[in-house]
Design a protein that fits this description.
elongated, about 210 residues, two-stranded antiparallel sheet
Length: about 210
């Protein structure tokens, strides 16, 4: 299948209100998966991302940021706090330069983000939410839905706390994954016995009424 996505020039990118382009190719980001910024507190060579914030971004600012970060696509991927490893070709293709305007402050942000998952799967969302919360990000971007999912809440003093809704969703996704893994490891007989035990417990809790 051919890739019809266009290459976004630096001058075009600088004028976007929001969006992303692949660091390696300059092509516009795909309209699926979850986009999660790399942690600005971590050095680039350790898997982090420098974030540039200003009232507006000109072509030179975007070009300088791209030059500073383009090596991250080939060399490292974030795997945890202050940890890095070599990126696979697939991972390299999912590293993006991102730009977005914060309407609440009027500031424009430049960062490096990873596209997680090619579709809106439970595992992709779990990974994206985990990254967003652990890195104290205000939100992650769900490209398929065209929506930002808030992962943190910031008060008037700039202090951040995890969004309860994001935490509950993450807890549910983890429990579903663990239950699925547990069921896969069971034999057919064990699954049948578990079902029978559940039905028996239900019958004991709600005994059938006898006719008078």
């Amino acid at each position: 299948m051919s890739d019809s996505r266009s290459v976004i020039s630096t001058s075009q990118f600088a004028t976007l209100p929001g969006g992303s382009r692949e660091l390696a190719t300059g092509k516009e980001g795909k309209g699926s998966g979850y986009y999660v910024s790399r942690d600005p507190r971590v050095p680039v060579d350790m898997g982090g991302s420098p974030e540039k914030i200003g009232g507006s971004m000109d072509t030179q600012a975007v070009a300088n940021h791209l030059e500073e970060t383009k090596g991250t696509a080939e060399k490292v991927m974030p795997t945890g706090w202050m940890k890095a490893r070599a990126a696979t070709p697939t991972e390299s293709a999912n590293v993006h330069q991102g730009i977005w305007q914060d309407e609440s402050t009027g500031k424009t942000h430049l960062d490096v983000s990873d596209r997680i998952g090619g579709r809106a799967s439970r595992s992709s969302l779990e990974n994206a939410l985990t990254r967003g919360i652990n890195q104290h990000q205000l939100g992650i971007y769900a490209a398929g839905a065209g929506q930002t999912l808030p992962t943190m809440i910031q008060d008037e003093l700039g202090r951040k706390t995890a969004n309860p809704g994001a935490e509950l969703t993450l807890k549910y996704l983890k429990s579903q994954r663990e239950e699925s893994s547990r069921r896969k490891s069971m034999s057919r007989g064990a699954k049948k016995q578990e079902k029978n035990d559940a039905l028996a417990a239900f019958d004991r809790s709600f005994p059938k009424r006898t006719e008078q």
